[in-house]
Amino acid sequence: MARRKKIYEGKAKILYEGPEPGTIVQYFKDDATAFNAEKKAVIEGKGVLNNRLSEFFMTGLAQIGVPNHFIKRLNMREQLVRSVEIVPLEIIVRNYAAGTMSKRLGIEEGTQLPRPIVEYCYKDDALGDPLVTEEHIAAFGWASQQDMDDILSLALRVNDFLSGVMMAVGIRLVDFKIEVGRVFDGDFHRLIVADEISPDSCRLWDIDTGQKLDKDVFRRDLGDLKDAYTEVARRLGVMPKNAPPVTKPTLIN
Ligand code: CDP
């Protein structure tokens, strides 16, 4: 089997060179990390679930005209995506206070915000992804004003889509993070949603019970992370109820 060239290995995914120019194979690992990788574990089957869930969200987004990098799923752990030039920002959208916003501003977790609030963090693990303002982004040239307008519009469209999809299955979308990247067409570029959308990067609470169905289960030792993600997938009809967990990935050539 031909060895593929590894382009990048992150905390939860590995990127390999894709079969065609401009494509990348995104491999979902079972590794879970929190608090900037201070807490680590291997959760068997998490990669399989996130591969399917990210496919589900990205496909739905494409259907309503929100451009994103997803091309097709290749196997249980891998998907083919468009290669992009990642904008070095984590774009966070919040509908309810939680996590760092609650800590920073002293707002009780679960408080509904007056409107969706979009925050930007500079993508740098060594710095712990610090919160930045649009002033920093413009001054340091991380994104242009046009990029920022497009990013805001993409983030709010993803929020409306995900909130609706989740509400339909009794889940509250508290907050989430996306990343965006540039695709080039001659001298022009446009921005598309990249990376992943999964319970690793969202806060998802059961509407009736408040039960957490996202990575906070791992961060805060609230139970079995795999069960929580499986519940999200089951409600969305993404994985057949009794599908056996697949732990041995088949790598493509
Ligand atoms: O997750 P944490 O409390 O550290 O930070 P947050 O700013 O409250 O996170 C807001 C949302 O963005 C949560 O759904 C996180 O899971 C997500 N996030 C992420 O996926 N990756 C990061 N590096 C930071 C936040």
UniProtKB/TrEMBL annotation:
Keywords: ATP-binding, Ligase, Nucleotide-binding, Purine biosynthesis. GO terms for cellular component: cytosol. GO terms for biological process: 'de novo' IMP biosynthetic process; cobalamin biosynthetic process. The keyword Ligase applies. Pathway: Purine metabolism; IMP biosynthesis via de novo pathway; 5-amino-1-(5-phospho-D-ribosyl)imidazole-4-carboxamide from 5-amino-1-(5-phospho-D-ribosyl)imidazole-4-carboxylate: step 1/2. It is an enzyme of class 6 (ligase). InterPro entries: SAICAR_synt/ADE2_N, SAICAR_synt_PurC, SAICAR_synth, SAICAR_synthetase, SAICAR_synthetase_CS. GO terms for molecular function: ATP binding; phosphoribosylaminoimidazolesuccinocarboxamide synthase activity. It catalyses: 5-amino-1-(5-phospho-D-ribosyl)imidazole-4-carboxylate + L-aspartate + ATP = (2S)-2-[5-amino-1-(5-phospho-beta-D-ribosyl)imidazole-4-carboxamido]succinate + ADP + phosphate + 2 H(+). The keyword Protein biosynthesis does not apply. Belongs to the SAICAR synthetase family. This is Phosphoribosylaminoimidazole-succinocarboxamide synthase. It comes from Roseobacter insulae.
